[in-house]
Design brief:
single chain; 607 residues; alpha/beta; Heat Shock Protein 90; 4 domains; 7-stranded mixed beta sheet; 5-stranded parallel beta sheet; 19 helices; 12 strands; elongated; binds adenosine-5'-diphosphate
Length: 607
């Protein structure tokens, strides 16, 4: 309490500046005690003892000097200087007294513990060690001025030294209690303030975590809500595009709708990805795939666009073909796609070259695979080369107007590469071009046991197979889109496409009819897609149906989760017509062929 009142006078506050407060308190203690000791010493010498000449004056002067120096230093808010001045003053008094009392220990020796302890608390052990030299000089002065008798003994009485030590020890206790109490009260205050601030931080952390969760939920929900109508736009556009009777104008308009819808979808995916990475909720896949094939496919996708601008797109693969590795093919494709999209967008002449190679040694079974995308495009100014990896950052605002884009691609790339324990670097010169280099550690595999699936992606031939398909979705638009798509892909008179608006209705229908394919939405009121799928598996008629999860829950984790729950396959919304074709082809053609008895089997059964 007393210290807090003293703090008020010196303008110190241990909660704001602990060091300043402690030093101010030491300076106050010095001022009070040295002043008091000087005056008491002078009084004792004057009235009680008959001291040597000049000792009273010395005591008086030292007391008054200590008081005025201390008060001035504290007023000027200079605790360090005040402590230093006090120690210097006490030391001078000590030496003067030792000289005046030639050969015996002056009462001022009692200052010693205070000097040492104060220096130690204010400036640490090193400062206290500095006192050793003046201390040695002090004792040397006393001993050298002592009268040496003929017998060889010193002139001072050894019991005098003992008395002085006892008195100094006793006074040390006063110093320790004084400085200790100042320290203790300051630490208690600081500790309670720290506890309160920890509590506040904890509350703030919980609030921030809740807000972050709410943000992630909001983004996930928004993404679902936006995907659903987008599903209608893109799906119906796809269906209309297949109409051969369309005029060129209508076809161009449809292409525009399709492009805009896809751009919106891409933006949605980017925002969802970024928020997932930031919330550390993104899990990487770890599966075997052919990296050479992935690079080839991705570059093939961008080549026509580059060539229309007169830009050559080449691949230099030094990894071998095939190049099987273990990693996350989807995310690697996303990174390469982003880099290539930028290279194509920002290059107007020259070439874009993609190089695939390895660097360094194999460590922990992983090879550092280096992928670089070099272009001869517009380049990126040196002062922007770091910031373009931040979300929503572009070289300047005119970029957005001229080239479009959101500034999310590279931010996602850097985060994905970091998550893969790799790094992405950029070197670029304005007007000369840019090179983005991605280094990622990947486990290389000599050969893959997985069969390489070759598919004809451009196939638009109708699937000619009869079958019964059930489309389940609580949104009528989605039902209509999927139904139209199925009817466009499968051309057979005996094709039946039914719709159900919820899980329960789907189960009822699957109980009455034998379905070949069920396209099942997941998030539906009353009965969700997973429960409906499980119930359909229990029915007698549709137990063997291929039940496909069709959902806007579009992450890799969700895909794994649905397949593990018992779905036969998975289609993300908005449904791509090529993907739907693949699923229907397997269900209505491939599966049936493999289910059909072989010649051998039919002979045995008929025999
Ligand atoms: P976006 O391309 O959607 O704007 P990115 O994060 O992919 O977002 O890129 C951020 C910015 O970095 C771009 O807007 C562009 O200014 C610059 N940039 C990226 N790649 C290149 C490149 N190959 N050449 C020139 N500038 C580039």
């Amino acid at each position: 309490m007393l210290w807090r009142q003293i703090d008020r006078l010196t303008g110190a506050d241990p909660l704001v500046d602990f060091d300043y407060a402690i030093k101010s308190r030491i300076a106050v203690a010095y001022t009070a005690i040295f002043t008091l000791m000087g005056l008491v010493n002078a009084a004792v010498l004057a009235f009680v003892l008959d001291g040597r000449p000049g000792m009273v004056e010395l005591g008086l002067a030292s007391g008054l000097l200590a008081g005025s120096v201390g008060v001035t230093g504290l007023k000027l808010r200079r605790p360090n200087a005040t402590i230093a001045a006090m120690i210097l003053l006490a030391s001078l008094v000590l030496f003067a007294a030792a000289w005046a009392n030639r050969g015996s220990f002056p009462p001022a020796t009692l200052y010693l513990p205070g000097i040492l302890l104060g220096a130690y608390i204010a400036w640490g052990a090193r400062a206290a060690l500095f006192a050793i030299l003046p201390l040695a000089a002090y004792f040397g002065l006393i001993i050298s001025t002592a009268h040496v008798t003929e017998g060889g003994r010193l002139g001072f009485n050894p019991s005098e030294l003992l008395d002085m030590l006892v008195a100094a020890g006793a006074l040390s206790c006063v110093w320790i209690v004084l400085f200790g109490s100042s320290f203790r009260s300051a630490t208690t205050d600081a500790q309670s303030a720290l506890a309160a601030s920890n509590q506040r931080l904890e509350t703030a952390l919980i609030a921030a975590q809740q807000a972050n969760r709410a943000k992630s939920d909001f983004i996930a929900n928004m993404s679902h809500e936006v995907r659903t109508p987008l599903n209608g736009v893109l799906g119906m556009t796809n269906v209309l595009q297949a109409d051969t009777s369309l005029s060129d104008d209508h076809r161009r308009s449809l292409e525009l709708i399709d492009d805009s819808g896809k751009a919106l979808l891409e933006l949605l995916n980017d925002i969802l990805d970024l928020s997932k990475i930031e919330a550390d909720a993104l899990e990487l896949d770890n599966r075997e795939f052919d990296l050479a094939d992935l690079i080839r496919n991705t570059t093939d996708h961008w080549r026509p666009q580059a060539e229309t601008k007169g830009v050559a797109l080449t691949v230099n693969n030094q990894l071998g073909d095939p190049a099987f590795v273990r990693g996350d093919p989807l995310r690697l494709r996303q990174i390469i796609n982003n880099l290539l999209a930028n290279a194509v967008k920002f290059t107007h002449s020259g070439r874009i070259s993609v190089t695939l190679t390895t660097v360094g040694e194999v460590r922990e079974g992983k090879t550092r695979v280096r992928l670089s995308v070099r272009d001869t495009g517009i380049g990126i100014p040196g002062n922007k080369q770091d910031s373009i990896f931040d979300p929503f950052n572009q070289v300047d605002a005119s970029m957005t107007r001229r080239y479009g884009g959101t500034g999310l691609g590279l931010a996602i790339c850097r985060r994905l590469v970091n998550k893969m324990n790799g790094k992405i670097t950029l070197s670029s010169k304005m007007g000369r071009g840019s090179t983005f280099t991605v280094d990622v550690p990947l486990e290389r595999i000599a050969t893959s046991e997985q069969p390489v699936v070759t598919r004809d992606p451009a196939s638009t031939k109708p699937v000619e197979a009869a079958g019964r398909v059930l489309v389940v979705d609580d949104v009528v638009t989605n039902q209509l889109v999927l139904k139209a798509m199925v009817q466009q892909i499968v051309r057979a008179d005996e094709l039946v496409v039914d719709c159900a608006s919820g899980g329960r209705e789907a189960v009822n229908k699957a109980t009455s009819f034998a379905y070949d394919v069920v396209l099942m939405d997941i998030q539906m009121p009353e009965m969700d897609g997973v429960s409906a799928m499980q119930c359909i598996r229990e029915t007698r008629k549709s137990a063997d149906a291929r039940i496909i999860a069709v959902t806007a829950l579009a992450s890799d984790d969700h895909r794994r989760e649905f397949l593990a729950a018992g779905f036969t396959d998975y289609l993300p919304k908005p449904v791509e017509i090529a993907e739907l074709r693949r699923v229907l082809e397997i269900a209505l053609v491939t599966d049936r062929r493999s289910d059909a008895p072989t010649d051998e089997e039919s002979r045995v059964s008929s025999g």
